[in-house]
Amino acid sequence: MGTIERKEREKLEMRNVILKAATEMFLQDGFEKTSIRGIAEKIEYSVGTIYIYFKDKTELLNALMEQGFQKMMGVFKELKKNEDPVVRLKKLGYAYVNFGLKNKEYYDLMFIMKKPMEMSEDKKWVSGMNAFNFLSETVSACMQDNRLRFQDGNSANLAIWGFVHGLVALYTRKRLIMFDQKRIEKDIYDAVNNLTDAITK
Amino acid sequence: MGTIERKEREKLEMRNVILKAATEMFLQDGFEKTSIRGIAEKIEYSVGTIYIYFKDKTELLNALMEQGFQKMMGVFKELKKNEDPVVRLKKLGYAYVNFGLKNKEYYDLMFIMKKPMEMSEDKKWVSGMNAFNFLSETVSACMQDNRLRFQDGNSANLAIWGFVHGLVALYTRKRLIMFDQKRIEKDIYDAVNNLTDAITK
DNA sequence: TTCGTTTAATGAACTATGTTCACTATCTTT
DNA sequence: AAAGATAGTGAACATAGTTCATTAAACGAA
């Protein structure tokens, strides 16, 4: 009898109902302001129910993070078309920053927040690793063609990721207030272009 | 009679007692884990007392942030000795990252945490501005000598700050787990050197 | 010295949060 | 139909930040 299968399906459905509500609230108000009680109220179930499907708030957050990485990879995949690795690298930098600026809450979760990284550093980073590997391969291809002003690929990976992350992080955490706020987003994109120009040849 | 003066002195003393306890707890456990109740207990006063001297937890945090910026400027001042602006810039990048890695809690407060920036974006950034101006002047000097591979100073400021911040931020927020954890700190310093080499001439 | 006034200090109480768990109600299997 | 399994419940607990009526002490004027 397919009872077990149906139950499992229902369990998954319920999980998705919670996740969908959580995603909506999270994208609107951020993770901190998204309370378990709020989610419960939204889906018209009791608080306790949420804990049947998610161990704690962090597990909920992991699921959201996974969504974020999938979304990011969706953007990156498009870049594989570009055959010249330097072009690919430049567009990757741009796409990364663009993702960060257009998906602040996801970006926060994926790369800034403390919470999700406090535990199980493995499973949730499978998809995160995909994104990193994409950078890594592109950098590697650039190095092979001797088109990067770097000694080794490892250092280039770190430098480039650090760079694009830094721009997004400083901006979303409101530390760039000494720059002209009308032009700041354009300035950030310019900085990406200028720096990628400076380190490639 | 000097009663008023004495009272004011006592008030300042009490403020400092609170601040000292808060600093100790904060540097040991971070801001989130430092509770008002914890501070009160440590100085053997009641919770309410703390609210006489600090409007809320954010004001306490502002005071800590101020300390952090002062500490950072103490390091930066030493770099003024270097007359070659490119040397100064390179050492500045190194010093910035070094400050971040050696003072994680302060760095977190100053450049990563959401809390302090949610309100009064002015007063608390006077000292922060000093640090930024130091970078800005150094970059400006490099540009004047045509030693930077950048179109304009503004973009260079943004790029360089973004870069060093990104490295510290990714590391302290545990996002660099795909790198060899035994070498990662050295790799970060290497990345700083390699990138500053790449963008200067 | 005494007495009204000011104010530092108190800590119980309020709000909000994540989390747990004994209990109920419903569904499944025998 | 009875027994067993389990989804769902919501009161209760722990821990936060914050407020405020109340107390006690210090102060200054008479």
* Poorly predicted spans of chain A: none
**Largest sheet data of chain A:** none
Provide the helix percentage of chain A: over 70%
Structural class of the helix and strand makeup of chain A? Answer: mainly alpha
β-strand percent of chain A reads under 5%
Largest interface: A-B, 43 and 43 residues
> How many DSSP E strands of chain A?
0
Average pLDDT of chain A, rounded to a whole number, is 93
Oligomer: homodimer
**Silhouette of chain A:** globular
Number of distinct helices of chain A: 9
End-to-end gap of chain A: 65 Å
- What value does the Rg of chain A take, in angstroms? 20 Å
Following the backbone from N to C, one meets helices and strands of chain A in this order, namely HHHHHHHHH
Q: Can you characterise this structure?
A:
Two copies of one chain form a homodimer. With 201 residues, the first copy, chain A, is mainly α. Chain A has helices spanning 3-29, 36-43, 47-53, 57-77, 85-102, 104-112, 125-144, 153-172, 184-199. In chain A, helix 5 (85-102) packs parallel to helix 8. Chain A starts with a helix and ends with a helix. The mean pLDDT of chain A is 93. Chain A binds chain B through residues 111-114, 117, 121, 125, 129, 132, 149-151, 154-156, 158-159, 161-167, 169-170, 173-179, 187-188, 190-192, 194-195, 197-199, and chain B through 32, 111-114, 117, 121, 125, 129, 132, 149-151, 154-156, 158-159, 161-167, 169-170, 173-179, 187-188, 190-191, 194-195, 197-199. The structure holds a DNA duplex (30 and 30 nucleotides).
